[in-house]
Write a structure and sequence with these properties.
Elongation Factor Tu (Ef-tu), domain 3; 3 domains; alpha+beta; 39% strand; conserved putative lor/sdh protein from methanococcus maripaludis s2 fold; 389 residues; nine-stranded antiparallel beta sheet
């Protein structure tokens, strides 16, 4: 009996083994293949608005077309990009920081006469020249140097009238007729009529007009000489209009004269007029020129060192400027790329001052146009514009 049970168990086990083998080799097995991603179209990231039905080389750039998949995820405001793509463009980011833009510019300038100290010499009465001293236009003259010896009949007649009547109103009339204070005092002191008068330089400077010659007549409205001061001498320069918001009382200026190889620290001011054609600011500075080594017409450079008020700064490479719109690509907390509109306030030394971002926001510095194109394809730019309206 025991042998029969053992034989039955062996037989049952053999049957089970045979059944398992039959099931394994005869039953159909379906292999689980990965689901293929659906491709909507192919495109060139540099020309995202042109779509292609098949892969291949881009007709625009030396690169292959990129597939646009139907299952690519997109956040509410930004986009996500395949990490392989971001690795290929060597993605680099920077932080928005609070700081000052530093400006250091050198602009051409020229030296000019000091128009604040310029005199026009007019006798204010008719007369003629007895002697013209040896001066000509462009020569230097010192205060008190004799320019002309003249005879003016109206001055002579008024002196005689004064000596006869001693009326002080006549002295005032002589002053109004152009007689110098020195000659009037001589009349009062000597009580003698003067018939020949010496016209002297009232200031030191350069003669810019010297109209009379010996023996010439002149009328009372005739300018017989003009003198312009050269100390201090003026420096005129033209700076870019974009610097206007940043030039203030804290700005530092210096003047460099190439011909003299000298530099002068100066205080400069912005004149209220702007050159409309060149879009430049008119700057003026003054340099002491007591020794006369600086000449009108000399070339110079005005060096400007200034800084902006504190503002949000980002690397200039992160800015996308298309003329009527400026934007950047920021990186959200979840790693998505979000385009944001900004306003440019100024740019210097690789940094741009902006409004529209907060401190410590991350911005994309490299490959910004590729990511911007992707944002355009996926509608992120359109959402950005709608939110800004």
């Amino acid at each position: 009996m025991k042998k029969i049970k053992t034989a039955a168990l062996i037989l049952l086990s053999n049957v089970l083994v045979l059944f398992a083998a039959w099931y394994y080799f005869s039953a159909p097995h379906t292999e689980q293949k990965p689901k293929e991603r659906q491709i909507l179209f192919w495109y060139d990231p540099m020309y995202p608005n042109t779509k292609f039905d098949a892969p291949g080389a881009s007709p625009f750039m030396d690169m292959d077309l990129v597939p646009k998949y139907a299952d690519e995820t997109q956040t509410s405001k930004g986009i996500r990009i395949d990490p392989v793509q971001t690795q290929n463009i060597a993605l680099k980011t920077g932080k928005a920081v609070i700081g000052n833009l530093i400006f250091s510019r050198s602009v051409p300038a020229n030296l000019d006469y000091n128009s604040h100290e310029s005199v026009i010499i007019q006798p204010r009465a008719d007369g003629f020249v007895e002697k013209a001293y040896k001066f000509s236009v462009g020569e230097s003259v010192k205060k008190g140097d004799a320019l002309f010896d003249v005879t003016i009949p109206e001055w002579t007649a008024a002196q005689s009238e004064y000596l006869f009547s001693r009326n002080k109103n006549i002295l005032e009339r002589l002053r109004l007729l152009g007689m110098s204070k020195e000659d009037i005092q001589t009349l009062q002191k000597t009580l003698k009529v003067q018939t020949r008068f010496t016209i002297k330089a009232p200031i030191s400077g350069v003669i810019t007009a010297y109209e009379l010659k010996e023996g010439m007549n002149f009328s009372k409205d005739k300018t017989i000489a003009q003198i312009q001061s050269v100390s201090p001498i003026w420096v005129n320069a033209f700076a870019p209009e974009s610097l206007s918001p940043f030039i203030n009382e804290k700005s530092e200026f210096s003047i460099y004269i190439p011909s003299l190889k000298q530099e002068f620290s100066v205080h400069a001011e912005i004149l209220p007029s702007v050159n409309q054609a060149a879009k430049t600011l008119n700057l003026r500075a003054k340099i002491d020129n007591q020794n006369g080594i600086l000449k009108s017409g000399m070339s110079a450079y005005i060096n400007i060192k200034t800084k902006s008020e504190p503002s949000v700064l980002i690397p200039s490479s992160a800015v996308i400027d298309i003329g009527d719109e400026q934007r950047v690509i920021t990186i959200d907390e979840d790693g998505s790329f979000v385009p944001k509109l900004i306003k440019i306030l100024g740019e210097s030394d690789g940094f741009t001052a902006i409004s529209g971002l907060d401190e410590n926001e991350s911005v994309v510095q490299t490959g910004v146009f590729l990511i911007d194109s992707e944002a355009d394809i996926k509608g992120a730019l359109e959402k950005m514009r709608k939110e800004s309206d």
